[in-house]
Specification:
13 helices; mainly alpha; Endonuclease Iii, domain 2; about 220 residues
């Protein structure tokens, strides 16, 4: 995995405003080091990466993504993906359901039913709905794409267990907040909820010594 670049200046200024609202965030970088600015490719590649990362560890996702990228052109092309056999995709590490979801994504992009380039111009909720309409994509996967591929500042994937665990650890809560509760807890951080998510993941990686998934 390549080293992530530093936080862009505009986002650094927004982080300062966020930390002024949530003092517990201000200490994260002092303990865990500077927040890396992690991104993913936009378009088909980033959406495919979202499928790869579903319900597995970051290390496993990174290993599968490396093997999958070795099979594809640069940048990954949906028609090239569709030309790969199921056996090749299984050897890369994709499960049977993920193969089906990824093929559905590739077909939607190749046939023009999903215009991945148009997502960048859509408001957050409209883009999330367009992505989540694809089989195998829920709100979490769509939010992850908006956050890392489109670098949306206010998208908060509240279904993410690591975010819930990180906030529980940071605030000393007795249990991880459920999705609805976590989304409500994040409301005061708007319009910087995406930055809050990045900080919370950074904190949780530091606490657990885990790696991130860089596409």
């Amino acid at each position: 995995m390549s080293e992530a670049p530093p936080v862009p200046p505009a986002e650094r200024a927004a982080l300062r405003r966020l930390c002024a609202r949530e003092p517990a965030f201000a200490a994260i970088e002092r303990r865990a080091g500077k927040l890396p600015w992690r991104t993913r490719e936009a378009g088909f590649a980033g959406l495919l990466a979202a499928i790869v990362g579903q319900q597995i560890s970051n290390l496993a996702a990174a290993a599968i993504w490396t093997r999958l990228r070795a099979l594809l052109a640069t940048p990954p092309c949906p028609r090239a993906f569709l030309a790969l056999s199921d056996d090749a995709l299984r050897q890369a590490g994709l499960s049977r359901p993920k193969i089906a979801y990824a093929r559905g994504l590739a077909e939607a992009v190749a046939e023009g039913r999903l215009d991945a380039s148009a997502l960048a111009a859509m408001p957050d909720e409209e883009a999330i709905a367009a992505i989540a309409a694809l089989k195998g994509f829920g709100r979490w996967s769509a939010e992850i794409y908006l956050l890392f591929a489109l670098q949306r500042r206010d998208v908060f994937p509240a279904a993410d267990l690591a975010l819930a665990a990180s906030l529980a650890d940071l605030r000393g809560l007795p249990a991880r907040p459920a999705e609805r509760a976590l989304r409500a807890l994040a409301e005061p951080w708007a319009p910087y909820r995406g930055l809050a998510a990045r900080l919370l993941w950074h904190h949780w990686r530091h606490v657990n010594g885990r790696a991130a998934f860089d596409s």
